[in-house]
Each structure stands twice: as C-alpha cells, then as structure tokens.
Design a protein that fits this description.
Elements lengths: L1 H25 L4 H7 L10 H13 L6 H11 L7 H7 L12 H22 L4 H28 L9
Helix pairs in contact: 1-6, 3-4, 4-5, 6-7
Length: 166
C-alpha cells in the first residue's frame, strides 16, 4: 500500500510541477511570484530542477522564458537529454489552460498558493523539523494574504481599469 501511495504522490507532484512551470511559460510575469517562494531545489521531481534553474537564468538576463529558449540553454549546458529531451520541454504547458476562466487576480493568487504548497513539500523532503515546516507555512501563507490585500487595494485605486465603474 505504501508503494502505491508513493507512486500516486510522485505522479501528482509531477503533474503539479509541470503545470506550475507551464503557467510561467504561458505568462512570464508569474516568475516574480515563483521566485518569492521557490528556487530550483524546491522541486521534488529531479528533472524539473535544471529546467527551473534555466528559467531563473533566462529571467535574470531578461530573456523570454519559452520552451525554445529553455531547450537552447539546456543544450548548451549538456542537460537536455537528462531531462527527457525537447519533447518533455514542449509538454510542460500542455495541461495549462490557454484562456483564463477566472480573473487574472484570482489566477495569480492560486499560482502563489501553489508556490507556497510546493515550497512546503520541498521543505518536507529536505527533512526539516515539523515546527520548521509549520513556521515556513505560516510565513508563506501570510505573504499570500499580503498579495491578496495588495490586489484588492489596486482594484480600489483604479476602479475604471478593473470594471468597478462603467
């Protein structure tokens, strides 16, 4: 039973990490939120670490974060085959919705919550003490609440831009 649970956890984690990376590939501005909570070592799935490290490198150089640029960088560093080749990179955003069914603010909030969840999972895998994980979660959750308050404040400051006034 434990092996089945571990396999399900791995499959679910891989799907979530792919969706997280895929969301950034579709909207590079999400990288700001991702870097508030994660680094490349925050990923449980090993092949996502060099992918995210490459994304960080591209972001810091102010390059486009796209499958093509990631492939080019991984090829230069000799890591492309290790992560599954070009096909895997192109598959990263296949389960991410192309059109938002919720407003952008809700999407960003959910993205931030996902980043917090991923950082908690990474913390658990790094064998942190339970109290440390709780403290980490409390701090990250506080940051998500701050983001939510900032978004609400911006909506009130710009009512025309946010559909609050016709």
């Amino acid at each position: 039973m434990q092996q089945q649970d571990e396999a399900e956890f791995y499959k679910s984690t891989q799907k979530n990490e792919k969706a997280f990376i895929g969301a950034i590939l579709l909207d590079n501005t999400l990288m700001d939120y991702a870097l508030e909570h994660l680094d490349s070592n925050s990923f449980v799935i090993g092949k996502h670490r060099p992918i995210f490290a490459t994304m960080i490198e591209l972001y810091r150089r102010h390059d486009i974060i796209s499958p093509e640029y990631i492939i080019k960088e991984l090829r230069v560093h000799g890591d492309l085959a290790e992560i599954g080749g070009e096909g895997y990179i192109y598959s990263l955003n296949e389960n991410v919705p192309r059109a938002l069914t919720m407003d952008q603010d809700d999407y960003i909030e959910r993205f931030a919550i996902m980043a917090v969840s991923m950082s908690m999972i990474a913390a658990a895998f790094s064998e942190m003490q339970l109290t440390d994980i709780f403290n980490l979660f409390s701090g990250k959750l506080g940051r998500v609440r701050e983001l939510r308050a900032d978004i609400a404040k911006k909506k009130l400051q710009n009512p025309k831009d946010n559909g609050l006034i016709n």
